[in-house]
């Protein structure tokens, strides 16, 4: 039994679907939601959670991105293109959210065997199982020239369509992936290339920002040569869980989790506000 089967088979999972409702609220709330569920799961108050989320056009900057010398110019450019801009309080660099990007979170208790690589391998294996008909082998390695590059970029024939991250809180682990489903992966990459071009101008960044090559990124619809929608993937995902013995139950937040979520929303909102205000102060002194 592989790591994915052992986590799913005969195990209880909460299914939380924000793939439609997420379009109505700020993406910061999704990070607060995962932090809430991560805490609840880590404290033993919740079984493992499978959560899907989609948001209207938003660019999620990493902490390092927010400290680029001319980042406010980059933010202004993104807003002119019709995107909201937020700064997350976890690792990683800028990513794109929109109606064609499906985000999945696997939220579980952090056990002794639950290493960083264990979490990444589990998500990679899940995507391989959900897309057994993929037009090429789904590989995991850093795709040079992609946005938010990492050692667990997922690609087919050298083109990246997904990236994985992790967050751990109070004994809980949230393994998160964004899947570029529809539209143009290259256009999304070009958007962030232009952001970085503007955000690094006039100063010396303290980190090596991505030198983005739009041609190395694609959506699954582009890779398959036919449209693969968010609903298509949700059907594949739930079918896989059910066929592999998961006790999957649709769930909402408990009263205790609602109070914790309100606290987490306030927390991430304040951090985001401070990060954006710092950006303006830095830009004003350049």
UniProtKB/TrEMBL annotation:
<comment type="similarity">
    <text>Belongs to the octanoyltransferase LipL family.</text>
</comment>
<comment type="pathway">
    <text>Protein modification; protein lipoylation via endogenous pathway; protein N(6)-(lipoyl)lysine from octanoyl-[acyl-carrier-protein].</text>
</comment>
<dbReference type="GO" id="GO:0016874">
    <property type="term" value="F:ligase activity"/>
</dbReference>
<dbReference type="InterPro" id="IPR050664">
    <property type="entry name" value="Octanoyltrans_LipM/LipL"/>
</dbReference>
<feature type="domain" description="BPL/LPL catalytic">
    <location>
        <begin position="44"/>
        <end position="228"/>
    </location>
</feature>
<dbReference type="InterPro" id="IPR024897">
    <property type="entry name" value="LipL"/>
</dbReference>
<feature type="active site" description="Acyl-thioester intermediate">
    <location>
        <position position="148"/>
    </location>
</feature>
<keyword id="KW-0012">Acyltransferase</keyword>
<dbReference type="InterPro" id="IPR004143">
    <property type="entry name" value="BPL_LPL_catalytic"/>
</dbReference>
<keyword id="KW-0808">Transferase</keyword>
<feature type="site" description="Lowers pKa of active site Cys">
    <location>
        <position position="160"/>
    </location>
</feature>
<dbReference type="InterPro" id="IPR045864">
    <property type="entry name" value="aa-tRNA-synth_II/BPL/LPL"/>
</dbReference>
<protein>
    <recommendedName>
        <fullName>Octanoyl-[GcvH]:protein N-octanoyltransferase</fullName>
        <ecNumber>2.3.1.204</ecNumber>
    </recommendedName>
</protein>
<keyword id="KW-0436">Ligase</keyword>
<comment type="function">
    <text>Catalyzes the amidotransfer (transamidation) of the octanoyl moiety from octanoyl-GcvH to the lipoyl domain of the E2 subunit of lipoate-dependent enzymes.</text>
</comment>
<dbReference type="Pfam" id="PF21948">
    <property type="entry name" value="LplA-B_cat"/>
</dbReference>
């Amino acid at each position: 039994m592989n790591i994915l089967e052992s986590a799913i088979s005969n195990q209880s999972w909460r299914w939380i679907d924000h793939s439609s409702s997420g379009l109505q609220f700020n993406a910061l709330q999704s990070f607060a939601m995962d932090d809430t569920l991560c805490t609840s799961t880590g404290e033993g108050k919740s079984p493992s959670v499978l959560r899907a989320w989609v948001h209207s056009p938003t660019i999620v900057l990493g902490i390092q991105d927010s400290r680029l010398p001319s980042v406010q110019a980059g933010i202004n450019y993104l807003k002119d293109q019709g995107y909201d801009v937020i700064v997350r309080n976890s690792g990683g660099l800028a990513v794109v959210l929109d109606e064609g990007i499906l985000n999945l979170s696997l939220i579980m208790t952090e056990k002794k065997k639950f290493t960083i690589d264990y979490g990444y391998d589990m998500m990679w294996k899940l995507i391989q199982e959900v897309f057994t008909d993929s037009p090429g082998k789904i590989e995991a390695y850093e795709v040079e020239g992609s946005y938010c590059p990492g050692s667990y970029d997922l690609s087919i024939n050298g083109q990246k369509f997904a990236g994985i991250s992790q967050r751990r809180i109070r004994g809980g682990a949230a393994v998160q992936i964004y899947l570029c489903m529809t539209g143009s992966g290259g256009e999304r990459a070009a958007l962030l290339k232009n952001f970085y071009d503007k955000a690094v101008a006039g100063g010396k960044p303290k980190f090596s920002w991505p030198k983005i090559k739009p041609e190395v990124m694609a959506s699954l619809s582009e890779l398959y040569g036919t449209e693969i929608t968010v609903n298509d993937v949700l059907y594949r995902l739930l079918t896989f869980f059910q066929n592999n013995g998961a006790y999957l139950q649709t769930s909402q937040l408990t009263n205790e989790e609602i109070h914790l979520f309100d606290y987490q929303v306030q927390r991430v909102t304040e951090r985001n506000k401070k990060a954006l205000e710092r950006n303006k102060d830095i830009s004003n002194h350049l």
